[in-house]
Each structure stands twice: as C-alpha cells, then as structure tokens.
Recover the amino acids of this structure.
C-alpha cells in the first residue's frame, strides 16, 4: 500500500497571501519507519532525551519565534535546518515521491481553494496508482491529512470522488476516506508540512531555495511532471516549472501539427 501524507501551507482566509498550497509525500508502507527514524535522528540534536517532543514545523522554524527554534538566532541556520528536513525527502527511496497543488486564490473567488487542491491531488494520486497497476503491481492508496477544520468536508469529497468521480476520472484505487492525525505524532506529516511550505514559498514569495531541494522528487512519468500543479486563471502570468512545462508542450504540439500530414493523437 502507498500512503499519501498531506498538509497545507497558507490560509484560505488570509487576503495577504496569494496562494494556498496542499502538498505532501507519497510513501510505500515499507519506507515509513525508515523516514520517521531519519527525522527522529535529526530531533536528537535538539532534545537528546526527548526527541519525540520535537515537532518539525517549517513556518515555525523559519520565523524562529517559538522554542526550540528561537534558540537558533541566525536566520540562515534556520533555513539550513528546513533544507536538512527536505534533504531527507530528496534522498528517500525511489518508490517515494512528492505531490503538491498551489491554488491562486483570486483566480477562483467563488470556490474553496482547499477543496480545489484536494480534488486535484486525489486524482493525481489515483493516476499514479493506476500507472503502478499497469506495470503489473496492484497497489491501493490511503490519504492521511494533518488535523484541520476541513476534516468533514474532505471526507465527504472523497466519498463523492469514488462514486461520481473528480473532474477528470473516477477514483478507483484509494481505499478509504482520508484519515486525520495530529502532526506531533506523525513524522511523515511533518515531512508533508515541509513540502507544502517549500511550494508555498515559491508561489507566495518567489523564493525557490526550498523547492529546489525536492523539485526532482515530484511524481513524473516519461519525463512529464505530474506531481506538482498550479491552479490559476489563464490571465495569471507564471513561469513556474508547471506553467513553463505546459507552455513548452503546447508549443511542441502546435509545431508537430503544423508540419504533419495528419493530426497526431494524444
């Protein structure tokens, strides 16, 4: 079984933030213990006798206002710690990948950005499981989300996706409604928090320092980036890896059609 751990970064209600991001890490069940231990080992440097009490929360590390991160006065050192957490993701096994959806809130004034992102990632996770199945390995998936006020609505959405489908397809390989857990008790949720924060910093503050660490770990198939998506209106100009790749593929298809005798089939 594959588990997709998700957390959000940004706030749907905060008008000073342009984007809301839902993101996380997709892990085969056999790799959960190894990843958790790697973060436990990093926590030993801050609490040698009680490492379980250390929760790695990227925005709190970045701001450095609460213990134990307030003991790291240098902002560069706190940024390096966030990158150290992300490096654990970058160095994870090949079966591990990341997913994230960034929603430009002003592009969807009448919709909940969290629900937009969740629908998108459910579909992408299900598509990954379908690709695995086509390779001859039958796997189911489960989504685990940090506890939030969205618990009821996201559980209802998942039930609808399994029966009625998303905008793109019916969900077939996700085993149940999402489970909600306390991030303090799950190291993989803490990794998801860092992934979401890395993407949020890219879209909200044009800061690529964190996303660059894990960019190669987003789900891909035949060189096409599937794990990272950017939801925005056509009029919103963007040169992120997602939008740039979409524009490049669109230009290539146009060029092929122009010189081809017959219309190619996608």
């Amino acid at each position: 079984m594959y588990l997709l751990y998700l957390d959000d970064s940004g706030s749907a209600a905060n008008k000073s933030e342009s984007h809301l991001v839902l993101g996380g890490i997709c892990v085969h069940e056999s790799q959960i213990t190894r990843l958790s231990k790697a973060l436990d080992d990093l926590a030993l440097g801050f609490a040698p006798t009680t490492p379980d009490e250390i929760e790695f929360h990227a925005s709190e590390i970045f701001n450095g206002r609460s213990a134990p991160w307030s003991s790291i006065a240098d902002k560069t050192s706190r940024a390096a710690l966030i990158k150290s957490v992300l490096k654990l993701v970058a160095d994870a096994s090949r079966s591990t990948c990341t997913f994230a959806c960034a929603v430009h809130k002003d592009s969807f004034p009448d919709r909940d950005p969290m629900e937009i992102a969740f629908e998108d990632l459910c579909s992408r996770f299900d598509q990954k499981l379908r690709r695995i199945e086509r390779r001859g390995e039958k796997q189911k998936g489960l989504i685990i989300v940090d506890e939030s006020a969205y618990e009821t609505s996201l559980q209802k959405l998942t039930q609808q996706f399994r029966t009625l489908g998303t905008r793109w397809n019916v969900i077939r390989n996700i085993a149940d409604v999402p489970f909600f857990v306390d991030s303090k008790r799950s190291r993989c949720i803490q990794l998801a928090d860092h992934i979401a924060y890395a993407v949020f910093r890219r879209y909200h503050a044009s800061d690529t320092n964190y996303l660059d660490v894990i960019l190669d770990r987003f789900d891909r198939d035949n060189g096409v980036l599937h794990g990272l998506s950017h939801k925005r209106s056509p009029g919103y100009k963007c040169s992120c890896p997602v939008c740039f790749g979409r524009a490049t593929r669109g230009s290539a298809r146009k060029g092929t059609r122009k010189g081809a005798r017959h219309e190619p089939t996608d």
Summary: Residues 2-234 form a domain with the Nucleotidyltransferase; domain 5 fold (CATH 3.30.420.10). The chain is about 40% helix and 15% strand. The first strand starts at residue 2 and ends at 9.
